[in-house]
Hints:
The protein is an alpha+beta fold. Helices cover about 20% and strands about 25% of the residues. The protein has a domain at about 50-175: Nuclear Transport Factor 2, Chain: A (Roll), CATH 3.10.450.50.
Amino acid sequence: MRNRMLPRPRPDTGSQKVEMTKTTSTPQVSPRRASPARGQVPASAGEYPNMAAPFDPGSSADMPLTRVLHFWFEEVWCKGNLDAVPQVMTQNTLISGAVSALAEPECDYREVVAALRNLLGPMKVTFTHAMETRDWVSVRLLVDTSDPKDGNDFQITGQVMARVADGKIAELHSNMDYFKMFEQLGQLPPEAMAICMTGERLR
Length: 203
C-alpha cells in the first residue's frame, strides 16, 4: 500500500498579533523639474516676494524695483520729462506691448510717449497692486486722465511687468486697456469690445 503525503498542519495564529509598520516615502522628483530654469536664480529658504496693495511711494517699504517703475511713470508719462527716459531705460531694453512696442526699433521711445501724451489730458498713475522679486516687478496700475477736447475725466487700467538690472529697466512688458481709452477719446464707438465680440465690424 503506497504511503500518502498528508498536509502539514498550519500553526495557530489566532493568538498572535501581526505588527505592521507604516512607511512613508518622499515622492521622487525629476532632476529636470527640480532644477531652476536657465537664468533663474533659485529662491533661498524663507524668501518671499515683496507685495503692496496699493503701493505708497511715500512709504519706507523695501521695494526698490517698484520705485524704479513708479519713477518711470511719474517722470516720463505724468510729467512728460522725456530726459528721464535714458535714466531708467537703455538702447537694449526689450519692450513689448500694443503701444510700447512701436518704439522698437522703428523710433525712439520718447516719440511714442510724446504722441500718446498729446492725445490725453494730465495723467495720474496709481499702483493698486505691486509685487517684486529679486529682479522682476509686476504692477496693476490705474490711470486717471481726461479728454483734452471736452475735459471729460475717465480711467483706464493696465498691468506691467519689468525686469530691472543695475537700476534700469532691462525688459518692459505692458498690457493697457487701449480699447477703453480710444472709446473715451471718441476714436472708437462706444462698447467697441462688445461689438467686436458679436463678430460685427466696427463702423
